[in-house]
Recover the amino acids of this structure.
């Protein structure tokens, strides 16, 4: 099996979210269960049809075991790869390989967290890094503030540029009834927000919410016989240079510079063919970094690229149309919600924020402190 012969060989046939925003009284596994049951139903399947399970959570040391037990599944293949928020983009690639190899016939990818109502904050769930600990960082925000500061120093990026990302996200969220943070937001609001870790203010930081998401994949030949509009896996790639932010080779360049081209080459698509970008926006700086590293503008030009509402509703480039992690949902790990929005857009189910034409979407996941980068390209049948 080569990368050339897995393009279009699997498809997402079921997709669902649950508990987005606040879900008081529900545990993480209960939220996962809700989204999984809904996704399986959306696919026109039954739970007993699921024989592949892919999961990563911040609540369970053994996520696939927990999901299998809770849902009463008996999978033939399972994988609990956890590379942070990008895990689920990687799971799509792994599930496609497992399906194509005949190791399973229906794969469930799932995630859930009750981070907000359980009292979780924006803190790292990672092990301490001995070379960072003496400086008392407040991770993950300290790491991202480092990257933002370096980008500003090297390329002249301004806080006003970061604010453009937050404003665009809120603009899209205001078109999404499921988004947790809706309502007016001005540039002055962003710039005057309480500073958390210079140069990142509260408005530059993602939400802390509850939420779960799940999707079901099958082989492409089976997808056409199921009730929902299939969304095909066209390409995927990952890259990882470091674990600790102080070991990052260059604070202004992420491994997305490798994962993106790998995914797009497998998919056989160019930048101008993509109708939608779903970029992991844990902080405003990440959107700028990923626009650069994925090749949508030159390195150092990201701040200028997002000015004047370019990625906001009505702008030239549709980015994070659900409102992103900044204004829609961010329950610890956000990567599966990128996929959920791409599926909604390609199926034509995105309501007021629906793009006129959406046949190709790129989803880019980020894990750790700009550490794990995973990119996938999804498409409609017209894109095959």
């Amino acid at each position: 099996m080569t990368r050339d012969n897995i393009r279009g060989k699997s498809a997402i046939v079921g997709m669902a979210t649950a508990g987005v925003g606040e879900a008081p009284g529900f545990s993480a596994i209960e939220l996962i269960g809700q989204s999984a049951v809904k996704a399986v139903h959306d696919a026109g399947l039954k739970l007993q049809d699921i024989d592949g399970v892919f999961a990563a959570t911040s609540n369970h040391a053994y996520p696939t075991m927990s999901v299998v037990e809770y849902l009463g599944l008996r999978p033939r293949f399972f994988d609990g790869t956890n590379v942070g928020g990008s895990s689920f983009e990687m799971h799509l690639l792994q599930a496609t390989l497992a399906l194509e190899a005949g190791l399973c016939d229906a794969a469930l990818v799932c995630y859930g967290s009750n981070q907000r109502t359980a009292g979780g904050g924006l803190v790292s769930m990672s092990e301490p890094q001995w070379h960072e600990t003496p400086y008392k960082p407040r991770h993950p925000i300290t790491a991202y503030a480092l990257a933002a500061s370096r980008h500003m120093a090297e390329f002249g990026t301004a806080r006003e540029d970061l604010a453009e990302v937050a404003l665009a996200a809120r603009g899209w969220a205001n078109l999404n009834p499921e988004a947790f943070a809706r309502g007016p937001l001005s540039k002055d609001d962003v710039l005057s927000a309480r500073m958390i870790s210079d140069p990142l203010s509260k408005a530059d930081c993602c939400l802390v919410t509850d939420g779960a998401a799940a999707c079901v994949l099958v082989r492409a030949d089976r997808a056409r016989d199921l009730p929902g509009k299939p969304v095909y896996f066209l390409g995927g790639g990952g890259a990882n240079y470091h674990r600790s932010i102080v070991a990052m080779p260059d604070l202004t360049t992420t491994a997305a510079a490798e994962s993106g081209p790998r995914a797009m080459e497998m998919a056989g698509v160019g930048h101008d063919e993509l109708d939608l970008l779903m970029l992991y926006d844990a902080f405003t700086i990440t959107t700028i970094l990923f626009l650069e590293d994925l090749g949508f503008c030159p390195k150092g030009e990201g701040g200028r690229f997002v000015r004047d509402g370019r990625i906001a509703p009505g702008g030239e480039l549709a980015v994070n149309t659900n409102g992103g992690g900044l204004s829609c949902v961010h329950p610890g790990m956000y990567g599966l919600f990128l996929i959920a929005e791409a599926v909604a857009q390609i199926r034509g189910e995105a309501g007021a924020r629906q793009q006129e034409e959406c046949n190709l979407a790129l989803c880019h996941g980020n894990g750790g402190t700009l550490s794990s980068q995973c990119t996938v390209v999804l498409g409609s049948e017209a894109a095959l």
User: Anything to note?
Assistant: DSSP finds twelve helices and eleven strands in the chain. The longest helix spans residues 28-42.
